[in-house]
Amino acid sequence: MTPEAPTKKQINVPVMADLAARNESPEILFWVGCAGAFDDRYKRVTRAFVRILDHVGTKYAVLGLEESCTGDPAKRAGNEFLFQMQAMQNITTLNGYGIKKIVTACPHCFNTIKNEYPALGGDYEVIHHSTYLQQLINEGKVGVTGGESFKGRRITFHDSCYLGRANNIYEAPRDVLAALDADLVEMKRSRANGLCCGAGGAQMWKEPEPGKKDINIERTEEALATLSGKADALANLGGVETETSTPATHDLQGSIIAVGCPFCMTMMSDGVKNKEQESKVQVFDLAELVASAEGINA
Amino acid sequence: MPSILRPQSFPPYLYPMLQSILFLLLLVAAFGLFTWQVRKIRANILVGRDRDMSGHAAERFRKTLLVAFGQQKMFKRMTPALLHLVVYVGFLVINIEVIEIVIDGLFGNIFGFHRALKFLGPVYDALMATNEILGALVIIAVAAFWWRRNRNPPVKRLSGVELRAWPKLDANIILYIEVALMAALFFMNTADLKLHQMEGVDLPGTFPISNLLVGLLPSDVATLHVLERLGWWIHITGIFLFLNYLPSSKHFHIILAFPNVWYSRLVPQGQFSNVESITNEVKAMMDPSFVVPPAPTAPDGSALAPTPFGAKDVEDLPWTNLLNAYSCTECGRCTSVCPANLTGKLLSPRKIIMDTRDRMEEKYESPLIFRPNVYGPEAKHEPVTDLIEATLLRGKVTPEELWACTTCNACVESCPVNINPLESIIEMRRFLVLEESAAPNSLNVMFSNIENNGAPWAFSPSDRFNWADDLFAAEKSAATVA
Lengths: 298, 482
Hints:
Helix content of chain A: 25-40%
Structural class of chain A: alpha/beta
Number of domains of chain B: 2
Radius of gyration of chain A: 20 Å
Mean pLDDT of chain A: 93
Low-confidence stretches of chain B: 1-9, 478-482
Largest interface: A-B, 97 and 81 residues
Structural class of chain B: mainly alpha
Strand content of chain A: 5-15%
Shape of chain A: globular
Number of strands of chain A: 9
Number of strands of chain B: 1
Shape of chain B: elongated
Low-confidence stretches of chain A: 238-242
Strand order of the largest sheet of chain A: 3-2-4-5
Number of domains of chain A: 2
Largest sheet of chain B: none
Oligomer: heterodimer
Distance between the termini of chain B: 100 Å
Order of helices and strands of chain B: HHHHHHHHHHHHHHHHHHE
């Protein structure tokens, strides 16, 4: 008997305005974020996360065309006026729908809505998708089985500054990865000591200032050295010399750099390409890994 | 036979009464001068913008206990943490002996007593022994500190564009004074011990280190008396000098670290401050019925000069950031973890904090010594000499430094005394953008994209929901659903 080809089903993403018209309210609002909506690479993360939401049967909705930039890049760049304009516009929308709980796959949106909207009249329970995925796994709603197996594959998690240091979320993404039964390896600079990918503080939209190296290259070198087992040889991290001649103990083939932030995704992917390792090392978001392991990616 | 020892009294050639009077004058002068300097620094800090830091006493107390007293954040790097712990504990414990020195100095000579705390008996023995062992350990730790700083090349974070000239000298002066103070203490104890041994009388206290050193001193009673007095006077005069050196030095952190940690921000590190004056303007724009609250007025009712958005100079920063500047001991942990600095950019969080202190003293009050930092060509910065033009922003901190920041909070996380360089950076960015429209062009493009498209990129807002088109999921058969 030949195995059946997996059947596909189409997901019609529920939009908040439609729910409101039917006088319904969702359990959670999924805040997609600009990168999640426009960036080709991160759109795949958005779609993976929606597959998970759909799969577990959560009653969710998105704002769709009513969503607008949280104002994070404007605020970090010093444009407080633009930030507050954006924030108040979004708060008006969110409060108009009586939103109570928001989940987002972007640590920047997460930080801004959670920490900076309350002073402007927006009080919500805000959860980063790493925490949400961890909860789904803990509750057994996602078994991380039935799909791609990550058993034994080397994965290193790159902490996003706006998730980690900014909001002290270090364990949730690691718990999610641990559920994959992969070979988790930690970079020397991790958790509170994690090194920025170089995109925060509105750097994503400008060229870096003159220097000796780009920050994402420094970070990618550390990730690659860790994945190939050379991490102990990186004795003097934080010089500009992250290359070593120490032999690798692991083949990079099939290794993964896991991220939980659209900007980290861009920076680390660019770094891997710069190091010409994109045929061996892939950069994935947590939601993509979970959806793949669950076998619901189409 | 008259004893050569106190408690009887000093030999007359040492003028006991004169010594007491001299000591009293010195004590009053030292604390007077110190108070005068501290008031200047307090005035400098208070030029900063108002920020209400009241409340949350329990949380602040806990933080102060852990981070300041307990040095929690120092222990991320074990070697310097242990060396620093020795000097810190040495400072705390040896200062108990300073209380005794002050009592002896004021009254001991006149009333013919010596070592006023000796009534503590075994506790005194333990205290003196602890002091001596700590004193020896302090000398070793200070020697290690000196080596870490002066070897070639030094520990990486102990160098940098901002650590030249005065800051470099200051760091070494502190180490030299600490060694001199410890040496004087041993000098005094050893001479005292030898005098007592020659008389066959027990000196109250236990002195494990001085016991090893007695052989090095001459056996002439008059000379020993003079040496003991010399050690005593050098030790206490040194302490008074050091006390009055502190306000001019990075070493002032031994005092201000405590209030600085007390006044730490208690919100998540990712939360940047809200600018209330802008909130009022935005509310008025969005809601015509919103009444903008009246601008604050001076106590006499007259209008105050409008405050700029963000910070151009030190008085535009919140006072807590100015307290930060005086609490900094220039250890460079912030700069050593800064991704911009690590990859060769100009930005150094430590430099911004040091610049803030320099600028306060240049523009406002200065303690006894004021040597503003001078940067070499590698800082790529032409010094502005006109004092009015030489504001913190541009006069000391260049836009190139500010724009290199990724706001990653590594500097904030790393500071052992909870200094927040990121806040100053953002305040200056706000001034550049809101008052001068001086953002890099690419950021201006990003701003207009947000304004026009609701996204930082040039995408059409009508495409925002396209990601949901043709979205399929693989259906799991019931058997594989966990």
